[in-house]
Specification:
Layout (H helix, E strand, L loop, with lengths): L1 E12 L2 E13 L4 E5 L6 H9 L7 E10 L2 E2 L5 H10 L1 E4 L3 H4 L6 H13 L3 H14 L5 H4 L9 H13 L5 E5 L7 H18 L2 E6 L2 H7 L2 E6 L2 E7 H6 L4 H8 L39 H5 L5 E2 L5 E2 L4 H6 L3
Parallel strand pairs: 3-8, 3-9, 6-7, 7-8
Antiparallel strand pairs: 1-2, 1-4, 4-5, 9-10, 10-12, 11-12
The chain binds iron/sulfur cluster and magnesium ion.
Magnesium ion binds next to loops.
Membrane topology: Peripheral membrane protein
InterPro entries: AAA+_ATPase, ABC_Ni/Peptide_Import, ABC_transporter-like_ATP-bd, ABC_transporter-like_CS, Oligopep_ABC_C, P-loop_NTPase
Subcellular location: Cell membrane
C-alpha cells in the first residue's frame, strides 16, 4: 500500500545542510502496524511529514526518492490531489493536539466539518456523525461536550479528539507521531489501547512513530529502527526483540530495564546521536558502536537482507545476530 523508496530530505540550517532523511525505504502493508523507532533527531518525524506532504518547505526539501501510495508517487502529485488524499485516505495524529486543533472552533464543529467538506453531508447529519465519533473514541457526555472548545479538554481527551478527526473518513493509513508522549502513563496506555482497537475495527494500517520500546512491543507487527536519518534495522517485532541484527538495536534493547536481569545493571549506549549537519562518515553509528572496526569508519554499510523480511545496515550483522546474550 505504502512503498517509500530511497527518500531524502534536507534542511538548510545556520550550521549547513542537515541530511534529516538519508535514503529511507520502507513498506507498509494493508492493516499492519509498523513502528518507526528512534531517538529524537533521528529523522522519524521528518520522514512522516514528507510522506504526508506536510513538510515545512523551506527550510525542508525532499531531494530524492519516491513515496508510492497504491503505486502512485505522491511526490509528483499536484498539491490539490494530495490534499484530497490527506484526511480521506491517509491521516496523521500528532504529539501536540492543542496546536493541531483549531482553538476558536468547537470540537463538534471541527469534526462535523470533516463530513460537510469531504463527504458533502448536511450540517445536521454532520453534527450527528461528529457526536458518534466522539462516542467512539470514548469521550464521556459526547453530545454536550461537542459544544466545548479544545482548551476545555484534558490532554488525553484532546488526543482522543484528534484521533477522532483522523479516523473520521476511515483512512487506509494512519500515521501517529509520538501520539502519547505528552500524556501521563495511565492515559498513555488508554490512548494506545484506543488506537489498537480502532485499527482492528477499521482495518487501518498504522505507522507508529515513537522513541519508546515499551509501546512498540505491545502494538506493532514490524519495527523499523532509525538512526541519523537512516533505517538501520527492520524486522518483525518478536524477531527483533529476540535477536537484534544491528548493534544500535542491541543497545536500545539492553538499555530497557528487565525483570529477569538480577544484576540490576542498566546499559546505556555511550555518547550522543550525531548532529545531522555532521553525520560521521562510513557507518554513522561507528563512534558509539562497541563492535566498530576499521571498515566501519570508511564504508557505509548497505542494507543486508537477514531472513524472513528482515534487514540490517551493519557490516557485522551476522556476528551481532549470533551474539546471544
Ligand atoms: Fe557498528 Fe560497524 Fe555495524 Fe556500524 S557497521 S553498527 S559501526 S559494527
Ligand atoms: Mg519527532
Amino acid at each position: 500500500m505504502l512503498d517509500v523508496q530511497g527518500l531524502r530530505v534536507e534542511f538548510r540550517t545556520r550550521d549547513g545542510v542537515a541530511r534529516a532523511v538519508n535514503g529511507v525505504s520502507y513498506q507498509v502493508h494493508p492493516g499492519e502496524t509498523l513502528a518507526v523507532l528512534g531517538e529524537s533527531g533521528s529523522g522519524k518525524s521528518v520522514t512522516a511529514q514528507a510522506v504526508m506532504g506536510i513538510l515545512d518547505t523551506p527550510p525542508g526539501k525532499v531531494t530524492g526518492g519516491r513515496v508510492l501510495f497504491h503505486g502512485r508517487d505522491l511526490l509528483t502529485l499536484p498539491e490539490d490531489e494530495r490534499r484530497r488524499l490527506r484526511g480521506a485516505r491517509m491521516a496523521m495524529v500528532f504529539q501536540d493536539a492543542l496546536s493541531a486543533l483549531n482553538p476558536v472552533m468547537t470540537v463538534g464543529d471541527q469534526l462535523a466539518e470533516m463530513f460537510t467538506v469531504h463527504r458533502g453531508a448536511s450540517r445536521r447529519d454532520a453534527r450527528a456523525r461528529a457526536v458518534e465519533l466522539m462516542d467512539r473514541v470514548r469521550i464521556p457526555a459526547a453530545r454536550e461536550r461537542a459544544r466545548d472548545y479544545p482548551h476545555q479538554f484534558s490532554g488525553g481527551m484532546r488526543q482522543r479528539i484528534m484521533i477522532a478527526m483522523a479516523i473520521a473518513l476511515e483512512p487506509e493509513l494512519l500515521i501517529a507521531d509520538e501520539p502519547t508522549t505528552a500524556l501521563d502513563v495511565t492515559v498513555q496506555a488508554q490512548v494506545m489501547d484506543l488506537l489498537a482497537e480502532l485499527r482492528r475495527d477499521l482495518g487501518t494500517a498504522l505507522v507508529l512513530i515513537t522513541h519508546d520500546l515499551g509501546v512498540v512491543a505491545e502494538v506493532a507487527d514490524r519495527i523499523a529502527v532509525m538512526y541519523a536519518g537512516r533505517i538501520v534495522e527492520t524486522a518483525p517485532v518478536h524477531a527483533l526483540y529476540e535477536r537484534p541484527a544491528h548493534p544500535y538495536t542491541r543497545g536500545l534493547l539492553d538499555s530497557v530495564p528487565r525483570l529477569d536481569r538480577r544484576d540490576g545493571e542498566l546499559y546505556a549506549i555511550q555518547g550522543m546521536p550525531p548532529s545531522l549537519t555532521r553525520v560521521p562518515p562510513g557507518c554513522a553509528f561507528h563512534p558509539r558502536c562497541p563492535r566498530a572496526r576499521e571498515v566501519c569508519r570508511t564504508e557505509e554499510p548497505p542494507s543486508h537482507p537477514v531472513a524472513d523480511g528482515r534487514a540490517s545496515a551493519c557490516h557485522f550483522w551476522k556476528e551481532t545476530l549470533d551474539d546471544l546474550r
